[in-house]
Design a protein that fits this description.
Layout lengths: L21 E4 L2 E5 L12 E5 L4 E4 L6 H11 L4 E5 L5 H4 L2 H8 L3 E3 L29 E2 L5 E4 L2 E7 L8 E5 L4 E5 L17 H12 L5 E4 L8 H24 L3 E2 H8 L5 H20 L3 E6 L2 E6 L2
Parallel strand pairs: 4-5, 5-6, 6-7, 11-12
Antiparallel strand pairs: 1-2, 2-3, 3-4, 8-9, 9-10, 10-11, 13-15, 14-15
Helix pairs in contact: 4-5, 5-7, 6-7
């Protein structure tokens, strides 16, 4: 089904109103951090959940102005929890300071962890982006339900972008707080060893099966028909698999050469992200016996099977 869908149509027409409290759904408000970049789009969306008592989902980067904006939005209300979708620092960097200011405990799926162990001689180019030392007071697991001021959030484990990623389905509504798993402005980076493509595809299937279909991502605006968009993202990933199979089918190649063939317009740090994402595709295909992957001191080599 997913393979027959067109590629996703990205929507970059979003006004973040950085630093302002913006109501996005009943009992849910957004404050966007001032950390716009090529990777974070207009900045990280922090969400205040609840009315009387609240939780703060994804406090965002360690930034003084954003801390002031969050405290102004909280306005003296009791913060029952600081919750993380995952532990990339553009989401979790402010957690410790916000917890100190509010006395709130931290809820997450655990400290940052890789999707797989590092291989011999392998270096993780995105190692500094994750907080491996931030430990929650409450470890949230798939299928749990947490109540915030009358709003019930269903915890949905969505590994793929990274191993400890969670989404939160708002029961009795059509909304899912999606973190970085599905975003409307761009496809999600799934860069091994931090991410894993097989996990990501399975997590797409999991959110598609939810009754809720309006997605509130951590970067950019609401995705109105999230289910269709998630299926298009899956089709896009399967198309990349096909592209890689075609490149490898022409003869033995290096990962770097394959990345240049598939992402000819990427340069600099974007080329690095593309290469690591393509490695996730290569590992996915190798695990299924569709290509052979060899690691050498000079880099990864890819060979056709048969």
């Amino acid at each position: 089904m997913a393979a027959s869908l067109p590629s996703p149509s990205y929507d970059r027409a979003f006004e973040p109103r950085t630093g302002e409290l913006v109501e996005v759904a009943p009992g849910i408000a957004r404050i966007t951090a001032p950390n716009a970049s090529a990777y974070t789009f207009t900045g990280t969306n922090s969400f205040l959940i609840g009315s009387g008592q609240i939780a703060v989902l994804d406090p965002g980067p360690d930034d003084d102005a954003h801390l002031r904006a969050l405290l102004a939005g909280i306005g003296g209300r009791k913060v029952v929890a600081v919750i993380l979708t995952h532990t990339h620092r553009d989401h979790s960097g402010l957690a410790r300071r916000l917890m100190a200011e509010t006395g709130a405990p931290l809820w997450s799926n655990g400290p940052h962890r890789l999707s797989r162990p590092l291989k011999l001689f392998e270096f993780n180019p995105f190692g500094r982006s994750g907080d491996f030392r931030l430990r929650p007071d409450r470890a949230l697991t798939d299928g749990e339900r947490v109540e915030i001021d009358g709003l019930v959030l269903g915890v949905v484990a969505t590994p793929g972008h990274c191993a400890n990623h969670l989404a939160f389905a708002v029961e009795g509504s059509d909304f899912v707080l999606m973190g970085d798993h599905v975003m409307g402005w761009n496809s999600t980076v799934v860069a091994t060893p931090d991410g894993d493509l097989g996990d990501y595809l399975a997590s797409l299937d999991k959110v598609v099966a939810l009754p809720q279909s309006r997605y509130l991502p951590a970067h950019g605006g609401e995705i109105g028909d999230g289910r269709t968009f998630a299926l298009a993202l899956k089709a896009h990933r399967l198309m990349r698999n096909s592209q890689l199979l075609e490149v490898v089918g022409r003869g033995e190649t290096t990962l770097s050469a394959a990345a240049r063939a598939i992402y000819p317009d990427l340069a600099g740090k974007f080329a690095l992200a593309g290469k690591q994402t393509l490695l996730s595709h290569a590992e996915y295909l190798a695990a299924r016996g569709e290509i052979e992957l060899r690691r050498t001191l000079l880099g990864v080599r890819l060979l056709a099977r048969g």
